[in-house]
Amino acid sequence: MGGSDAAGPSAKRAKTSEPEEEEEDPLVRRREELILQGASAAESLRAVCAKLQAKNEKLLGRLPPELWKKILDENLHQNDLVALAMTCRFFRDTAKILSRKLETNLSSIYLLELLKSGKMASHSLGWFQWVCDTFETQPGFKMSDNMRFMGAVREVDLFNYAAFQGSVEILRWLMEEKGCKLNVATGLWAGWGGSVEVLGYLEERGYEFFEAACAGAAEGGHLKALKFLRGLDPPCPWNKYACFGAAEEGRLEVLKWARSQDPPCPWVRSACREKASKHGHEHVIKWIDQQEDESDTECSVFDEEYSDFY
Question: Region labeled Disordered — which residues (predicted)?
Answer without folding.
Answer: 1-29
